[in-house]
Design goal:
The radius of gyration is 19 Å and the shape is globular. The model has no long low-confidence stretch (mean pLDDT about 95). It starts with a helix and ends in a 12-residue tail after the last helix. By secondary structure, it is α/β, with parallel strands linked by helices. The longest helix has 18 residues. The chain has 13 helices and eight strands. Helices cover about 50% and strands about 10% of the residues.
């Protein structure tokens, strides 16, 4: 009997030995090639109607984020109002995909947005991930109970870099179970993984463990999202889909601030994973400043001129 790709993937998680063999057996990443392809795709020119479509698509993919120790209920309510109506002067502007906050503010966010946009909460001792599993799971359950329908967890990068792949896998499985019906985004914190080979392994590890999304970064570590890293993650979700039939999303977070950069990422998505991923259900931007630039560019394309600095709110 011939094994199918899906049964082969199931076998990859059957034991610590099998998981290690699968992850270390993944093809190595040609770093020079990945950097070159990402740079080449970044030179593509998008104009006129295609650019207008891309800007609206990028707006609809934003997880509008505030993750500061000084966040207040008032700040979160203001952010939620902007998430639902990014440009109050233009009702044709799409809403963003989600608001992303700390778990203790998830209830405020849910009350503010209703069912208009998703509420994402960071959890599992974000951003370090340095806590016991019991604490991490309690963090997740509290956020879901408060109204979060998306959870952004961080992996234990120390365990991953020590080669404790099964420990990381089991933790993701446990968090996924604690999420219930909420979608799980697994943050790899690629700036701490050092190599594109590690990014590929961590991407597959997260997907095998049940991630609904794989996410580049917390935004607290530099470098955060980069085109080569995102390219490798997009290749991983594409290949995982070919092997399993499952679509897994990608979230590029941290350092993406301009419409020009956002459009480069959309080109990267289309040319690497395919147009199936050009939807907020499968690609997101984790950002705050990005939305303002998208709104300014959208208004310029509509009126032919740039607005003043008071056209958009400061988040």
């Amino acid at each position: 009997m011939t094994s199918t790709p899906s049964t082969l993937l199931a076998g990859a998680t059957s034991s610590d030995t099998a998981l290690r063999a699968f992850l270390t057996g993944l093809p190595g990443v040609d770093a020079v090639g990945a950097n070159g392809r990402a740079a080449a795709l970044g030179t593509r020119s998008i104009k006129n109607a295609s650019k207008s479509w891309a800007i609206d698509m990028a707006i609809s993919m934003v997880d509008l984020t505030t993750l500061e120790g000084m966040d207040t209920p008032g700040k979160v309510r203001a952010l939620c109002a902007k998430a639902m109506r990014p440009d109050p002067t233009d009702p044709t502007t799409p809403s963003v995909a989600a608001v992303c906050v700390y778990g203790d503010l998830a209830a405020i966010a849910r009350e503010s947005v209703g069912d208009t946009v998703h509420v994402a909460a960071v959890a599992t001792a974000f951003p370090s991930g340095r806590a016991s599993l019991a604490v991490k799971l309690a963090d997740v359950r509290d956020a879901v109970a408060a109204g979060a329908d998306e959870i952004d967890m961080v992996i234990d990068r120390g365990a991953f870099l020590c080669g404790e792949f099964r420990r990381v896998f089991d933790e993701i499985v446990a968090v996924k179970d604690a999420c219930g019906d909420a979608h799980l985004k697994v943050i790899l914190e690629t700036g701490e993984l050092h190599t594109l080979d590690n990014v590929r392994r961590a991407s597959w590890l997260a997907m095998l463990a049940g991630a609904d999304f794989i996410k580049t970064s917390t935004g607290k570590v530099s470098p955060a999202a980069t085109p080569p890293v995102t390219l490798v993650m997009l290749e991983a979700v594409r290949d995982f889909h070919q092997a399993s039939g499952k679509h897994i999303g990608v979230k590029a977070a941290g350092g993406i601030r301009t419409s020009k950069d956002a459009i480069k990422y959309l080109v990267l998505v289309n040319e690497t994973a395919g147009d199936d991923w050009l939807t907020p259900t499968l690609f997101r931007f984790g950002a705050s400043a990005l939305l303002n630039d998208l709104l300014l560019q959208r208004q310029r394309m509509s009126t032919g001129h740039y607005s003043g600095p008071d056209y958009v709110t400061l988040d």
